[in-house]
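Same chain as my last thread, 132 residues:
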Amino acid sequence: MSFGIRNVEAEKRPQVFAEAHRVLRESPESQLAIMEFAEPREGVMGILARAFVRYLVPAIGFVGSGDAAAYQHLQKSIGSFPSPDDFQALLAGPDPAQTYHFEITKRRALLFGVVQIYIGRPVPIGLSAEAA
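reply #2:
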């Protein structure tokens, strides 16, 4: 999934992960990959990334489409999305209802942390990642 989970309501994300887990657990080679925007919250890159998304993206959107307001959703959705560590923990689970559990096998930051890639494999419910 690329740049889509951010647009799923926060309380419904576990349902998306549970469905992915249900579909993927059939094969031991299965993997889930999610690529999503993140907002660097510290340092110079955090300042630059926030300025880019807050000011330049709507301006570019206005030039391209005539509707800068439509591009403000991007800034708001990135700003309200969990930090990379928090999202990784949510994705890994297990969730309280025990409907999914992923072992995160890789996380990679791109573009100075503005884009994150999470890769995980489904773990049978009730097992730790080490036991699977």
